Structure formats: C-alpha cells, structure tokens
Amino acid sequence: SYPDVDKASKPRFVRINTILISVSDAIDSFRDEGWKLVHQKDAKDYDGFLENISNLVEDQFMVDIHIPELLIFPPNTEFHAHQAYKDGLILLQDKASCLPAHILKAEPGSIVLDMCAAPGMKTSHLAAKLNNNGKVYAVDLDTKRLKTLEDLMQKIGVTCVETINKDILQINNIHCKDVEYILVDPSCSGSGIVGRLDLLEPAVKDVKRIQKLRGFQIMILKHALRRFPNAKKVVYSTCSIYPEENEEVIQEVITQIKNYKLVDASSVLKGPWINFGSDKYGDIGKFCLYSKPEKDMCNGFFIAVFERLKDGEENKY
Ligand code: SAM
Structure pTM? Predict the structure, then answer.
C-alpha cells in the first residue's frame, strides 16, 4: 500500500525538454551527478510502481511508466537553482499536466491549436511532441500570461509556436488554418490541485462560480468541435475533480455534436490506468479519465478525447 499525497509528500515531477536534450542524455547527466535510477521491472504493475515512487529516498529517481520523458524524484527535491532548469533542459511540470499533450499525440509536422494556452506548460509539451516541427497556435485572452508563455518558449528553445492574444471564441479556421489537433484546457475551479483539496468541503465549494465556469467550458468545447473542419482529434482537460466541469460538460456537448465520437482516453497510454469517470454517466464515464491524488500521486485531473467520425460512423449519443 502507498500513502495519500499532500503537498509535502507529492513526488517531484521533472519533464525533460526533448527539444534540447534526449531522454537518455538527461538521465545520464542526472546519474553523473550522483542520482541513482530505480528501475520499474514490471511496467504493468501500477501498484508496484506507486509503491516504488513512495519509497524513493534522497538520491533516487525513476522514469514514469506512462510518459517516457517524465522523471520522478523524491518530494520537494529542489530544482529551481539547477543548471538544467535554468538552461531550459527540464521543466517542473506535474504528471497530471503532462497527460493532455501525451494523449493528444500529434505527430511531428502537424498543426495544433492550444485554445487556452497561457502560461504555456502544455504548449511547451505540445511543441516537444512535434519535435519543434509543425505549428502550435497558442491562444490566450490574458496579455500578461501570454507574455509569460512567450518568454518560456524562448527560454526552452521552442520555435514552432505562434501566439494569438484574443478571445478564443473569436478565432476560427480563417485565423488558424488547417488545424488538425486541438487542446481545450479552459479555466476551471482548480479543485484537483494538491494543496487545494480543501475546496472539496461543501462550505468552500463555490457552486455559483462552478456553474459559470461550466458555461464557458461547454461553449469553448463546442467551438473546438464545430469551427475547425480539418481537426481530427480534440482533447478536453481540466484540473478539476468536480463532475460539473467534467463528465457533465462532456454529456451536454456530445449530445449536441454530430460529427465526433468520444473515445477511450486511456487507449494511448502504454501503462495501466485505474481512474475513470463516474458510472453514473454510462459510456461517458467509462471513456473519460481522471488522475486522483489519493491514487496516482499527482494532481487531480480530467481528460476526455473526441475523434472526428469517419464515413459511415455515427455518434450514438
Ligand atoms: N494550458 C495552460 C497551461 O498548461 O499552462 C493553462 C490554461 S489555464 C487553465 C486557462 C487559460 O484560459 C488562462 O490563461 C486564461 O487566461 C485563458 N482564457 C480564459 N478565457 C479565455 C478566452 N475566452 N479565450 C482565450 N483564453 C481564455
């Protein structure tokens, strides 16, 4: 068995910026510094993997079983002063936040739209998945946050990103041509973020705010599915654990969309996955994936994946 995580016990996740350094070179340089790599023998044994993470001692690290460019260090390992961090070779990004770009799986050379992009952690991961080859349109309404994104891209050697400082609802295929993959990562309650789980208490769950967020989430997801005729795959993600912002958003949208189907969000993952949506929502629950701090040792997160229907296929909702 392994413990529930809180801020103090959550492992330190380090994403290798594969634009500047290969996974094997990054691992070698950590080993050269004295870090010891703990191997996960059985990649199908998720409980064993979690147990190994929780047993990491001071000088040990592991490679994640789902995201090959993600390393796992003991909680609170300090990297801000590390040269590799300063040089943009590594990013400090929670595992949950690495899932959307990994699951979107855009191939190098393709055109991606990141609808709510700033401050750019997922944009940088999308660019890395493209090998910096192709294009990521990074849209955000907030000028200051978008500037942070631009600074980050420069620091970490990303050159395939074009930023657009506009309301995403005003953006369509004319502004962002030939988009093939879309990430929808809208503003949410943040209730999944470890250290903010107190939000789960009914006294602090702000129902009015959640309803407002949910309205925006539905609107932007419909926009993604309707306004980009060349898009073939759309990933919706939130760092919320409230069904109102997750399964209920998907349920409302999928019943109003004709040309997409919902697919199993975990099918891209090589390792085993255990947390899905609630049974209450039938197939929607089965296909949507959650990460849960109390199980997966990372932030709470939700992901749904839509794929454009092929000729003869039907949306059964
Ligand atoms: N994907 C980001 C990352 O990984 O770093 C985090 C995105 S954050 C959850 C949501 C973002 O949506 C905020 O930066 C916010 O400014 C932006 N946003 C909110 N409303 C928007 C709109 N109408 N159009 C474009 N961006 C919007």
Answer: 0.96
Give me 57's structure tokens: 């001692």
Hey, which of 91, 136, 141 would you mutate to test ligand 1's pocket, going by the most ligand atoms within 8 Å of its Cβ? Answer: 141
- 145 contacts: CB under 8 Å, gap ≥ 6: 118, 119
pLDDT surpasses 60 at 3: no
Neighbour-count burial of 275, counting CB atoms closer than 10 A to its CB (0-12 exposed, 13-18 middle, 19+ buried): middle
For ligand 1, is residue 247 a contact (CB within 6 Å)?
Answer: no
Q: Does 190 sit in the ligand 1 pocket, CB within 6 Å? A: no
Element (H, E) at 47: helix 46-54
C-alpha 61 to ligand 1 mean position (Å): 32
- pLDDT, tens digit, for every residue of 193-218? 988 655 555 556 788 999 999 999 99
Q: How far apart are CA 105 and CA 114, in angstroms?
A: 13
134 CA to centre of ligand 1 in angstroms:
22
Amino acid (one-letter) located at 9: S
* Higher pLDDT pick, 5 / 58: 58
Name the token pair of 61: 């690290």
Contact by Cβ (8 Å): 77, 30? no
Is ipTM beyond 0.85?
yes
pLDDT digits (tens, 9 = 90+) for 16-36: 999 999 999 999 999 999 999
215 close to 283: Cβ distance less than 8 angstroms: no
Q: In 3D, which of 303, 300, 288 has the Cα closest to residue 191?
A: 300
- From ligand 1's centre to the CA of 213, what distance in Å? 12
Segment 20-27 long-range contacts (CB within 8 Å, at least 24 positions apart): 20/87, 20/88, 20/89, 20/156, 20/157, 21/84, 21/89, 23/63, 23/68, 23/69, 26/71, 26/84, 26/89, 26/90, 27/63, 27/71
Is residue 239 annotated as a catalytic residue, yes or no? Answer: yes
